[in-house]
Structure formats: C-alpha cells, structure tokens
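Hi support team,

I'm filing this because I wasn't sure whether my run with NDP finished correctly. The job status page said complete, but I'd like someone to confirm that the output block is well-formed before I use it downstream. Pasting the exact inputs I used:
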Amino acid sequence: MQDAMKFVKDRDPDQKEFHQAVQEVLESVRPVLDRNPEYGQSRIIERVTEPERVIQFRVPWMDDSGQVQVNRGFRIEMNSAIGPYKGGLRFHPSVNLSILKFLAFEQVFKNALTTLPMGGGKGGSDFDPKGKSDNEVMRFCQSFMSELFRHIGPNTDVPAGDIGVGGREIGFLFGMYKKLRNEFTGVLTGKSIAWGGSLIRPEATGYGCVYFASEMLATRNDDLTGKVCLVSGSGNVAQYTVEKLLEMGAKPITLSDSSGYIYDEEGIDSDKLAFIMKLKNIKRGRISEYVDQYPGAVYTPVDKSLDHNPLWNHKADCAFPSATENEVNHKDATNLINNGIKLIAEGANMPSTPDAISHYLDSKILYGPGKAANAGGVAVSGLEMSQNSMRLNWPKEEVDNRLKEIMKSIHTACIGAAETYGQPGNYVAGANIAGFLKVVNAMQDQGLV
Ligand code: NDP
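And here is everything the job wrote out:
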C-alpha cells in the first residue's frame, strides 16, 4: 500500500488535495487488500487512482468591456467501470488538476454507493462567475461547451453542477451543447424542470444529507427534533440542508460564504431562509446582508490570522459543513467536540482535514463523510438520467421517496461494510470499502483496459 501511495505522489508531487483523498481511501481499504491478494497482483490501486482520461483546454471569451479573457477548462474522466462518467462542473478561481482529480476520485466511490449505474468524473474551470454579468457568464459557458461537447454525451459522460455552476450555468451549457450536436438529449443534469430536469434535483444534496443524518441518529435512538445545527456555506447544498432541517424540527443557527458567517441565536426560520434564497440565488448578494435585515444576528468576517473558524465554535448538537474542502481543521474539530457536538454530516466534499477526521473517530461522535452523506445529489442526477431516457417526469413525492430510500441503503451499506471489516460504526471505512469493492470488482471483471 505504501508503494501505491508513493506511486501516486511521485507521479504528481504537487497534487496535495488528490493525495489527501487517495490516502483516506487507501487507509480504509487496507483490510480489504490484506484479505484479497488478487487486487495487489492486478495492481488495482495503481489503476483506480489513474484517471482514464484527462482533458484540458483553452476557454477564450470576451468580457462586457470588450477585453479578451482566457480561462482553463478541464474534464477528468476518472472511471467508467460501472457506468458513464458522472460528476459536476466547478467554476471557481481555485480550480486546478489536483482539486478536480480529488473530486473525481471521491465521485467514483460515491456514485458506486448510490447503487445506480454511474462511473465517476469531474470538471470545471478557474473562471469565477462572482461579479460577472449574465451575458459574460453566457459567453464563457458557450466557449467552454464549444470544446467540452466533443468529449461528453448521454452514454459517455454526463456532467452536472457544483460550486459556481447552478441552474443559470447549466442552461447556457445545455443550450450550446444542443446547438452544436443538433440533438436534445439528457447530456447534463440539474436542468430546469421545463426542459428535462428532475423535480427535487436542486434540493437533493441538502435533503439527502439530512436524511443520512437522521439515519445515523436513529442508530442511537435519537432524531433531529430540537437539535441546534451549525451549517456552513449558503449555496445550493446549505440552503436545502436548512430547509430540510426546519422540516424535521431542528434549529439551524449559522450560514456562511467565503467572506464571513452569520450567527442567529434565535434560529434561521423559513422566512429567513426565503430571504437568503432570494439574496443568494436572484440578487447574487453576500451573506453579510442578512444582518441588515435581521439585526438580532451577528456577522463575523473571515479572519485569516486565526487558526480556527469561529463558526464551528458555537454550542450545537449537529454540524453540516456545506461550503468547500478542508473548511474544518483539527482546532475546529476540537472546538466542536468540546462544545458537545453529537453528529457531523458533510454536505460538502472533503470539508474536514485528515486530523479533524481522526479526532471525530477517536471521540466516537457520529461522523458521516461527504462521500456517503452528500451522495443524494448525484443519486437524483441518476434519476434525472433515467427520466430523460424514458422521456417522462416522475412526481416530486416519487423522486423524494426514491432519494430517501437511496440514502437509507447507502447508510445500510456503510454500516454493513464497516462491520464486515472489523470497524463497526466507522462510516469512513464503511463508505470507502463498500464503494471500492463495487468499482474494483467491476474492473476485475472487465480485464486490463
Ligand atoms: P454553491 O456554489 O451553490 O455554494 C458554495 C458555497 O460555499 C457558497 O456559499 C460559497 O461562498 C462557499 N464557498 C465556496 N468556496 C469557498 C471557500 N473557498 N471558502 C469559504 N466558502 C466557500 O455550491 P454548492 O452548494 O453546490 O456546493 C457546496 C459543496 O457541496 C462543495 O464542496 C460541492 O463540491 C459539494 N457538493 C455539491 C453538490 C451539489 O449537488 N451541488 C453535490 C455533492 C457535493 P461564496 O459565494 O463566497 O463563493
């Protein structure tokens, strides 16, 4: 296993986030490799950590002042052993190969956990939609798709949204794909319901994360009623996490963006959530504006000189990191645990650093890693693909019930795999082992390709 990790690091020494994601999976699957020497013989680790294909391309576009801008576009087609590549597109200035490879690698095992036939991929650009006009975003999306369209398709690779890619961007991307291919197919998910989208897709990651949290609490005869909850982010995942928490009788008290966070001791109720949705999705404003509307709340700007994020230092029962990777460090984990946190369910991908995760596991709190807890988004994307293939739309209740069942079965798979491999209650081991086995067994069946 050490050899495999060295192989990965030596090949791409500067891809820190990718190494972090691989290391976590390798540590979990060590007992699987010990019991099944055939995986070592067929160098399965070296194969599963190497993307099947990496596409990088130039994205030139013109801004509103007539200046030419040049961004980078990427698509990582990581693994297609169990279905077409599937995974989001991220538009954010931090995007690079390391971030996208970590996300694509995570996506492979997450997709396997959903029980749907989807391989794993991820893509995006270092383009920042923040502060851009709708016309600029449209021109960028059209230029991005004028290259990406060659590499994707409903049976090949089906991208979706992620940070910075919501309904507006998916619309522009789909429009350009349709024009270039001259066909109307289910090539992207997260589409508007009027032209091929699925009900519940926008809600799915947040709702699914809360369903997963409920399942975890149920193992300790507990539920979300009355639970005080910390939520980070204020985008798609955070908003629908708050919505479902409110429906289940919990009390969310924080939200954030990359500039700072708000703390509302009285709780973020449904009227306040409606204000946030309008602020973030329509006005494209900042979370700091919440305290102008609700002066009882407190806004704290990001302070990079601190060794912790004060959002995670409020007394609460549950935490839902839903912004970005590595947003909870060891000090934050210590603060959460000292304040009596019972559960952490990750809406974001890899939001906790490795030493924060070790701390959660040592303290025996309930910890649901993103790979399992946020799989609801891609699960409903899979359901959107099925509806597109059948050219029909399922009602909201049907999609929501399927989502609930999928989250329940992911929870059961995690618990089962963790027990089988001697780590009961460890959802990290459970998620990694269950996802890994499904993918690598399919790879073994398909030969050396
Ligand atoms: P959005 O773009 O809708 O929202 C992202 C939120 O996180 C915003 O509030 C943003 O603030 C904040 N954020 C982004 N980058 C940073 C940063 N570097 N530091 C602090 N805050 C930051 O994205 P989503 O809600 O879709 O995605 C959030 C997380 O969930 C990501 O990790 C994503 O990979 C993961 N995820 C998303 C899924 C989905 O279906 N959308 C599915 C599964 C996982 P600001 O506005 O200031 O940038």
